Amino acid sequence: MQRGPGGPGRRAVERKAKDTKGTIKALFVYLRGYRAIFLLAAVMAVLGTVMQIFGPKITGQATTAIFEGVAAKMQGTGGIDFGRIWDMLLLLFYMYAAGTVIQAVQGLVLAKLSTDVVYRMRRDISSKINRMPLSYFEGHPTGETLSRITNDVDAVGSNLAQTITRAISTIATLIGILIMMLTISPLMAAVVVAVAPLSGVLMAMVFKRSQKYFTAQQALISDINTQVEESYGGHQVITAFGHTAKSLDVFDKTNADLYESAWKSQFMSGLMHPLMAFIGNVGYVVVVVLGSVLAAAGSLALGDILAFIQYSRNFTGPIGQLAQMSSQVQTTIAAAERVFEFLNAEEEVERDNLVPVGDVKGHVRFDRVAFGYDKDKPVIKGFTCDVKPGQTVAIVGHTGAGKTTMVKLLMRFYDVDDGAIYVDGEDVRNHRRQDLRRGFGMVLQDTWLFSGTIMENIRYGRLDATDEEVIEAARAAHADHFIRTLSGAYDMELNEEGDNISQGQRQLLTIARALLADNPIMILDEATSNVDTLTEHRIQRGMQQLMTGRTSFVIAHRLSTIRDADVILVMQDGNIVEQGSHETLLAMHGVYAELYNSQFDPVDEKMQVS
């Protein structure tokens, strides 16, 4: 999967459906709950088809009656029986009217079925997202996941119900027309049927060649969504680094691949109709010639010939409809395959006999913890640490040392490969993930706010909090002052990205949200990295007051913010190489001292130069 504006494009022609039969089977399994609706739609389709099929037969009988009446009148032996003909036409009108009503009801049933399928799929995907491990989202672009939820689900919902019922209607039409043709002339019916296998062979050939292009089309739409989402979200970075042209080139490449797969898929599916029309015309010519011979021999009445010609044309019509439906079928299969890939993705698995989480005291112990995102490349190696309740523990180290990974393991976003992590003496793997995470408050470097008011965003930390409690949390985070300067204050609406306020202000709101949650264990991962120094000092004072009596893990690169930590853990290559207080670690003149001094050496050099 391409990532970012500079990622490689991919060739559409290399895309193929992974498991067409399995996807079709999964679709029918998924639709088991809609058997009654499908049965009703199928019955409506068959009834509507029956009403239409008898039309040519009755029309032929009326034509024969008129022809015979005219002939009798010319011979002076009778005339046209207008009463009989009127009855036939009236019956024909009633049948066509009933067929129209039945088709309207069928359309209503299909609309209900289609919307239900889309609703259920989106609901299942939404529920699935909450059960997915963090590793899935770290390994898949946001645009791809969004494309599965939107484009692919829409493709399945809009095409599936219509395709199945149209297929039922088409098959019923073919069977009904065949029966009617046999009642008129078995010989001519055999001629028409003999042409049908050629249509099936051509359909199979085109379907096989075009499926890979339909699959590529759905996947490339996902790529387009990913690139648009990344380019939009990273617009400032792309512009700042001068990669606008490169980003456009990559987009144009993917768009060109999408164009290639789209026109090929549409061309292949469009090829069906002229092929079917050619075969139908050949059969039509044969039927006309043979019918004329039989009529001349007196074996068939004129009305029967006209009715049979109409049936023969209608017989090739449904075959052409099946050909046209092949594009819908292929789009549906390609989209459904991507939807089911997501729905069948591996979930977070909970063990049996889990222990309920009681009142969390905050005693955390890492016991020889080992972990790697890739099993062959460990990130954490034998990490051991004992954190007492109420302690503030700072974790520092070079980038890639494993600081954030330790937090992910603590909250069970990942499980350890070896060793164990204990909270209040119980292995975290013995608790349900959601129950365990309720004991943690978290503020990350990357802020997350949703579309809504500032009051609603802060209250997300504790939904039953009063307005006064929300405002108090904002004051503790030193966010109250800037909130009241905004238009609407706490009732100001934040947009979807929350970018109608500054990055520092967004961070203050997330800190206020964590403070409102009032969890016994607090995790701060570069929580003050996006605020100015003065605001940082204010936040530190407020955080220090609220972290009293709570176990807190602070990950920081700006070491000046963690001087007052009870314990500072210095990580290097997944291990603790040093631990102690700020003064103790400086006196050791080791890794911590090197890290700390490196943040002030440039300043000292400038002072010496000046």
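the 2nd protein, sequnce then structure:
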Amino acid sequence: MKRSLLLSAGVVLTLSSALVTAQDSPESLLPPRFEKPKSATPKPGTPARPDAPGAVVQPLPPGGSPGDVARPAGPMLPSGAHIPTLHELETMSPDQLDELLGLKPKFDMPAAARRSMKQVGILAEDEGGMPAGSVGRQSPLLIMVLLDGNKGQIVSRWGHILLRRALASRLDAPAGMNPADFAAGRAGLLVRMGEGEAARELVQDVDAGNYTPALTQAAMDAYAFTADITGICPVTAVIGSQRKDADWRALRAICSSFQGDGSSAQSQLDRMVGPDGWPRIDVLLAQRYAGSAGKARQAVKIEWDGVSDMNPWRYALAIAVGLTPPDSLTKGLPKRYAYVQATAPMLGLETRASGADQAGAAGILSSAAMVDLYSQIYAQDDINGDWAKAADTLRSAYVADQPADRLTAMRALWDGGADDEARYSRQVLTAYAAARLPVMSDYAEQAPELIASMLAAGLDQNALRWSAQADTGSLAWGQLALAAPTRSSPVDGSALSNFQGNDKSDGYRKSRFLLAGLAGLGRVDTAAAGSFAEKLGIDLGRQTKWSRLIDQASDLNNRELVILLAGLGMQGSGWDKMTSVNLYHIVSALNRVGLGAEARMIAAEAVARG
């Protein structure tokens, strides 16, 4: 599947010669021969369908006549269908019986209550979302490549925040594309980014009767991520047995239990243990969850002996029933599990704080959300140990009488991070504490980290107060040169050289990012930029198919497309995977489409974390 996506991407990027002309009147990216859909006009002599516009009389069946006697209508099993035994009928839920007898409607709500598929999303334009028609006339293939081709691991916290905003926007689907499939692509990427709550809200914006196989899978992934097991039940009720894989059958059984048929649900789950079903541990967890509903409650003992791995549904069911999987199963797991820990309300505060040390740096948690989490830990008298100490330290960072004590507390939190990601998460945590610290020359040595902390929450005006303590060419100066809303004069060659002289990063990565950011924002002397680029061995003028597309999208002021392309260009496990050329095109494109604040924060973050 991934190989086919990459091949599709190559085809689209090769064929695309122009982007939309504007957000309100875009053009297709495909050549003319791809633009016109096949005509839907029936061939001459083709009878009109009963539901077709203008059809007022239902056509007679072949060979029929007005004098034929109509057969009584009633539920009939399809030819060759399996006729259930009496025992199977007894164990069927009412929902399954309705489906068997053909009594299940496509929609579980009246027509007047159904929602339009014209625009799907959770963030309107007047709420900060993107214009609804941003990708309305783009190639569906291009859009799905940008969504499905993104693994969701974005190096930049601010890039992650911006991409989440674009994916959650209320948007028209590309012409010729099912809006449900468009929602599925966006929700799937949100899940891969660790944004389970946003993905769940997005799939819930579509009525179950409009679900496609792709949206059904995206919904399952979103509900698994958020451990909202019964959230999928309205969808299982409508789709029924159209899907038959083990995950689906287990969820249908659980939903049956919560619909009042616990005995049948337990029997169905019993039969699922085996090669065509779920492993025994997962079935036991499902039975424990299903057993919490109705009169069929039963005790199910969970033993982890012999379990050697973890998967999303196993983890979701475990935490949903109040269990903590053993450390042997949770060590070394992908970051998505840490993101679940940070946002799952049923988990303990200490577990959530551990996940926050990754989620904060990723952009999943805001500074305010992290402070709120630590405040809850501080208020709990029964929490002791490292996390209680960290919560107390955070309080000192905000309210200690002496500024020196506040700075000491902030440094203790930063240094307490287990790795670079955790350290930056702690800087997100202390952003507002750093903004409260008075500007003093005694603290100039700590200015780079204080500035990075403030900019992690977008507090650029507070950070700029430290300009007097930021010597030209220092790390503090570099961040502020990028983060300032405006600059009166371009950066010259001597400032760039001074910065490189202070740069201890591998391969002068920070210097490369500084040049890319300044050039993207138009804040560096052209001659100085060329000389410095040659000195660093980089060519900001180098073009790729991706860079041409994002440049064209910015030329035509299409914010949504610029953000999707920027997200594709910001993938990686860390800033060491980011190239200065990609950063230059991303910052430049965002700045040109009116997202200058985001462009400045991404550029400053690159220098701080590079």
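The mean pLDDT is 87. Residues 470-610 form one domain.
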